[in-house]
Each structure stands twice: as C-alpha cells, then as structure tokens.
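Exam revision sheet. Question 4 asks you to relate a sequence to its structure. Input first:
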Amino acid sequence: MRVLAAMSGGVDSAVAAARAVEAGHDVVGVHLALSRMPGTLRTGSRGCCTIEDSMDAQRAANVIGIPYYVWDFSERFKLDVVDDFIAEYSAGRTPNPCMRCNERIKFAALLEKALSLGFDAVCTGHYATILTDADGNRELHRSAAWAKDQSYVLGVLTTEQLAHAMFPLGATPSKAEVRAEAAARGLAVAAKPDSHDICFISDGDTRGWLSDHVEHAPGSIVDRDGAVVGSHDGAVGFTVGQRRGLALGVPDAGGRPRFVLEVRPRTNEVVVGPREALALARISGERFSWAGLPPADPTTPFRCEVQIRAHADPVPAEAFVHTEGGRSELVVVPDAPLIGVSPGQTAVVYVGTRVLGQCTIDRTVSAVPATVG
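Answer key, structure tokens:
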C-alpha cells in the first residue's frame, strides 16, 4: 500500500513510520505545519508541532530512508481547532482541542488530501488497535498497553476514516519498548520527552491565553439558588470542578469548600456549590458518531462503558439514541454518577475494548437536587 506517515517529530510517529516501511509499504513522511509563528520552539515537554519538531521529523525520515514533506495546514488548524476552542469557551463549555485536531485535521483534512494524491492509508503513532470482524468490518479497539492507550482521542473517527487508518504501535506493550526500538534504529528522538498540554498554548497557562483572545468583564459568582457569594474578573477560563482561584467572600453554610458547577456566559455568572453537586446522573450530546458499525438498534438501551477524559477510568453505563422533534442525541446513563463533567467535553463509549462511538456533551443532569450552597 501507499502510506502517508504523519510525523509529528516525536518518537512514536517516527517508529510507526519505520514499522510501516518494514511491513513492505511504500511510505512517505509528512509533517503538518500548524502554526504561522516562525521561531516558536518547544520548551521542555510543552507544546508540539514547532519548527524544532519539524526538523526532528525530517532527521527521522532521513534515517528511515523515506521522502519527507511539510504541509501547511495552519489556516485549517486555526479555523477548525483554535477558533473552535475560543468559541466553545466563550459559550461556557470546556472543549478538547486534541479531539478536534484528530477529527478535523489528521483524519479529515490530511486524509482527504492523502486520498486525493493516491495514498491508501494515513499512518500515525497513536496507541490504538484496528481489528476486523468476521464480516470484514473494521473496529477501533484499545491498545495492548493500557497505560499508554490513546483510543479515547481517536473516538471521533468514522467508519470511512477507520478504513484508511493505520496504527503500527497498537500492539506494543510499553512506551519504553518504543524508545528502545527508536534508539536501536538510530533515531535521535528516542529520548525526546513527550509533549503535554495544548499545543498552541505552549506555556500551559490556558486561562491567561484565553484572556488575550476572548472578551471578558467582571461578573458575579453565585450559588445554586442565585445568591451572590463572590465576584470574578472574567468568566472565561473557569472550568467545572475547579476549586482554586475562586477567592469567595461568603463561606458555605456548612463550612464546605465550593467548586465551580457551571459557567453562564449570557449572564456572565459562575455558579458554585458543594462537591457532591458535581455528580451527574446523565449526559447527552447531539454531535455524536460511530467508530465503525453502530448497534443494530441504537434506540434500544445497551450496556457499555463511558470514558470522559483521556486518562480517566471507564465507568459502566447504559446508552441509547433518543430522537425528539427531528433531533437525535446520544444519551449515556452511568451506573454511578460521573464527577466534574462539563458540556464541551467528549464522552467516548466502549463495548469491551472496542470504541463504539462518541458524543460532545451538550447537556448534563445532576444527581443531586439544587440546594442552598
């Protein structure tokens, strides 16, 4: 097959490209230029997709012996990831830009261009596995290494995208093994630290970055009954479950710490309350998709597990598709309440090790009735 290897400049994508070559594929390496800020360099393990990363990717391609190109996706990245990130926070939601990047850049824009150029598949260094059922249908599954599993961030992939995806690291038991293999292959990125945080916020200060990109004004911090218990300089950047930085002047009646329960951009209010009020009995979202074949009848509740963060433990649940007034949503009812989940986050649904699908959370239902505080 003709394979386009997406090379981020890290060790995982470099080893994945090398394995694709060893498997006998005709491989071409490509690095995605996602920023038009020349001179931007990685600081420690923060950030990614920088000039430094591009050079690391090129050196790895040279060692592997494959052609290498840099494609400018900066405008698409700004529109589909950065601007979306700003819009979601402005609407009081907590977005996951890595999900949007996988959905709209790596497995939409990149795959679309790859197919138009005659490539059969896009190869990445994600830790996930693609299996084929008895009828030849492709399914996305967790990787062999639970601690490094990245199937969650791939939950946005569709059936068509899975048909052209390749994850050579899926069966690798540990990241240490990948680094050892990279060193044995003579790849200089063998000891390169992993990137963390949001790639376009390299210093890790999300709230500070948002303050420069989103209009903000002072407002009130209120309890669940609407009583004012404090003030803020700008609601943008507060996240559900946050405790630090509230600086409240009115204590909870029972002396309990308060947590952010909701952000209301229309009224510029931040709602706070006790930790138990963070427990959710139900989540749902209209923006949902299936990674492979959907359930035979998704309107009938089915057993599953739901994961709401990349490194969270999966929670047993029941899920189904509800349609009313011409609008459909994926509804997830966990066996035990979920804690600190915010609209804008992604809920990925698993059946065993298989990624069945996902939704961007639009609505939540608290497990605890509103009370004072």
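Marking note for examiners. The longest helix spans residues 97-116.
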